[in-house]
């Protein structure tokens, strides 16, 4: 058992019934983490997250004490989304979900906004490296392409 938790969180496959809640969690976490992007952008994309992006991804949720505290969405080896309820961030849930995704992959790639310093620090701590940078066209924001490879694991 992880010493951070008095009871062990559970990671399980999300179902379509979870998607409305996950889209709301995504919206709240996105607004919290991305204050440098207009809130209207996130609000306008909530429905697409629920009806398009989540259904086309492999989504797993982290449940702790009967509450969904976060989720991870993978498309093959691409980390499309990793979001934790803002009130529960810093408690180890993101690391648990990411380790779950790492457990059956040799490489994971993701994009992260360059101004999202907390996320960049988190991913670096989890063994990811910045491989390149590009502009996210919908937001015109600089983003980094980060990659984790199994050989880069730190034990």
CA radius of gyration is 15 Å
The portion of residues forming beta strands comes to 25-35%
Helix content: 25-40%
Order of helices and strands: EHHEEEHEHEE
Give the number of DSSP strands.
7
In which order are the strands of the major sheet placed? 1-2-3-4-5-7-6
> In DSSP terms, counting alpha (H) and pi (I) runs of 4 or more, how many helices?
4
What is the CATH superfamily? Gcn5-related N-acetyltransferase (GNAT)
Unreliable sequence segments = none
| Total discrete domains | 1
Determine and state the CATH class: Alpha Beta
Please summarize the sheet with the most strands: 7 strands, mixed
Q: Helix/strand/pairing class, anyone?
A: alpha+beta
- Shape descriptor reads globular
How would you briefly describe this protein structure?
The protein is α+β, with helices and mostly antiparallel strands and 155 residues long.
Q: Which key features would you list for this structure?
A:
single chain, about 160 residues, alpha+beta, Aminopeptidase, seven-stranded mixed sheet, globular
Structure characterization notes:
The protein is α+β, with helices and mostly antiparallel strands and 155 residues long. It has one domain (10-152): Gcn5-related N-acetyltransferase (GNAT) (Aminopeptidase, 3-Layer(aba) Sandwich), CATH 3.40.630.30. The protein contains 4 helices and 7 strands. α1 runs antiparallel to α2. The radius of gyration is 15 Å and the shape is globular. The mean pLDDT is 92.
């Amino acid at each position: 058992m992880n010493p951070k938790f008095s009871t062990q969180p559970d990671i399980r496959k999300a179902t379509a019934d979870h998607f409305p809640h996950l889209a709301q969690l995504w919206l709240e976490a996105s607004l919290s983490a991305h204050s440098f992007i207009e809130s209207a952008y996130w609000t306008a994309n909530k429905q697409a997250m629920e009806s398009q992006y989540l259904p086309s991804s492999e989504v797993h949720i982290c449940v702790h004490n009967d509450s969904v505290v976060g989720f991870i969405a993978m498309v093959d080896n691409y980390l499309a989304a990793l979001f934790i309820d803002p009130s529960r961030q810093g408690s180890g849930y993101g690391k648990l979900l990411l380790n779950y995704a790492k457990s059956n992959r040799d490489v994971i790639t993701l994009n992260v906004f360059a101004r999202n310093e907390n996320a960049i620090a988190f991913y670096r701590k989890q063994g990811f490296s910045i491989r390149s940078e590009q502009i996210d066209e919908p937001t015109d924001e600089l983003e980094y392409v980060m990659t984790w490879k199994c050989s880069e694991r730190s034990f």
